[in-house]
Specification:
- The protein has 78 residues and is α+β, with helices and mostly antiparallel strands.
- The protein has one helix and five strands; from the N terminus they run ββαβββ.
- Strands 4-3-2-1-5 form a five-stranded antiparallel beta sheet.
- Strand 3 and strand 4 form a beta hairpin.
- The longest helix is centred in the middle third of the chain and has 13 residues, at 20-32.
- It is globular.
- It starts with a strand and ends in a 13-residue tail after the last strand.
């Protein structure tokens, strides 16, 4: 997977080179604990770490972005 785009608080963030399953696990662990933080990238280009507070009732969307193949198709998700 190329990256995972994250929509949180009307802003877009991303995480590169991480599996969707691992990120699901981190979010689930934060929710099970009542709250927690995940570290993501803010913006494009040079990495700028952003820390998102994960709590019950706060909407978050995860959008997996697959790698493109040479024939302009997409690789299936892991």
């Amino acid at each position: 997977m190329k990256r995972i785009d994250i929509h949180y608080g009307a802003e877009q963030y991303s995480i590169g080179e991480e599996s969707l399953e691992k990120l699901h696990g981190e979010i689930r662990a934060a929710l099970d604990a009542g709250h927690g933080w995940i570290t993501v990238n803010d913006g494009e280009g040079a990495p700028r770490p952003a820390h998102l507070l994960i709590t019950p009732g706060v909407p978050i969307a995860l959008i997996p972005i697959p790698e493109q193949t040479e024939d302009d198709g997409y690789v299936t998700q892991d």
